[in-house]
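Record Dipeptide epimerase, 329 aa.
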Amino acid sequence: MSQTLTVTDERWPIAGRFTISRGSKTEAHVVVATVRDENGLAGRGECVPYTRYGETVDGVMAEITAMTTDVGAVLTRADLQERMKPGAARNALDCALFALEARQKGLTAAELAGLPPLQPVTTAFTLSLDTPENMEAAARVNAARPLLKIKLGGGAEDEERLAAVRIGAPDAALIIDANEGWTPDIFESRMRACAHHRVALVEQPLPESDDAALADLPHLVPVCADESAHIATNIPRLAKLYDAVNIKLDKTGGITEALKMASAAENAGLAIMVGCMVATSLAMAPALLLAAKAKFVDLDGPLLLARDREPGLVFEGSIIRPPQATVWA
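=>
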């Protein structure tokens, strides 16, 4: 048996500007790995290199390409778990190999994962960090969506931003994402504001390096690990500090580890959120395998782009339909 591997990078414009506490961007720069077998069957995977974890597009592409020389003619998902660290590069390859394996066995991705057929799910829709006035306006435009995710930054205007969004979208469920922007000394006041405005979840309020403080701080609203959560072996520590965990394939290094992490989170009593980077439908489709286990789904990446790849996932408002095999597997 033999395989061929191709790696490309692509740029997808964002509709406007996407801003979080660490900065802004106007495009999604993604890496796509394609693995093709000797019979012409192929699987693809998409990842987003993230500077927060020291990743670059060139570095990720080099990591992927190096795997073919490291392991020989045929690459397996087991090889990846042994030889690659969790992160974007392993994610692209793992998802590509998962899709290829499903096609070789004549299975859907859900069947290969031992899951029932996928069902439609409701995703959060993200509002970028901005002035309170602009965030209220964005909330009004999206007020009919059942779940909004709000980017906050830790500054003095955070509580004003939250209040403004609640005015703009009085009935939507809200997730707050601070992207490590808070500190322990402001945590309690921010959480009181979140409780007042009926926030459903607060995502990664403290930096990963400071999150041990969460053990002694009151959780007036459930708190979700994101930047602190990478792989299944993190779960015992996280269960002492958090109420939920955000599983992203670009952190776990693919769907193989993500499924293990979801099982570990369930066993530890942590609620599951399945999240994403800003990317196309090719990156979202594998993550939908986790949606049945998730209390919160945040797979709105394609909705934030000026255009998605074709074919892509079908979105009906905030509802995502199960992916067709032409999207991923």
